[in-house]
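Reviewers of the previous submission asked for a worked example of the structure-prediction workflow described in the proposal, so we include one complete record here. The input consisted solely of the amino acid sequence. No template or homolog information was supplied to the procedure at any stage.
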Amino acid sequence: MSTLKLLALSLALAFGVLGAGIADADPATHVMVTPGDLKWAEVPSIPPGAMIAVIEGPMNEPAPFTVRLKFPANYKLPAHWHPAIEHVTVISGTFNMGTGDKLDTSKTHALPPGAVAIMQPKTNHFAWTKEETVVQLHGVGPWGITYVNPADDPRKK
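From that input alone, the workflow returned the following structure tokens.
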């Protein structure tokens, strides 16, 4: 299977999308990835406008994964939770995160580049941006996203 097909498959189920990433070679192989190696694609399980680059995966299996998410300016990610612990590192921009059942921009923490957020499984949280922002997400799958309000789920629209 070609790398492009593997990437498409990976994006089809990780975050509601699944599959393989750049570093899915032999786990004993040393892997180095530069920003130019990243292949960005749309993310069907979060509101339109965000992009994902799978670095390591697959996200649908009980294995380590690493992805980057790029959010445009003025992006809003409604309240949701994940089945496993979430580790987020801000690469660029400012990622505003809060906890609760509904997105409330007044109840967030502004996370600048280098900041880290760790959310425990099934913790309701939300995020928004003022400027383009890139975060790196890593953990151990299987991964998923469940919206507090099912009407917020773009997969159901």
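The first helix runs from residue 3 to 13. We consider this example representative of the routine output the project will generate in years two and three.
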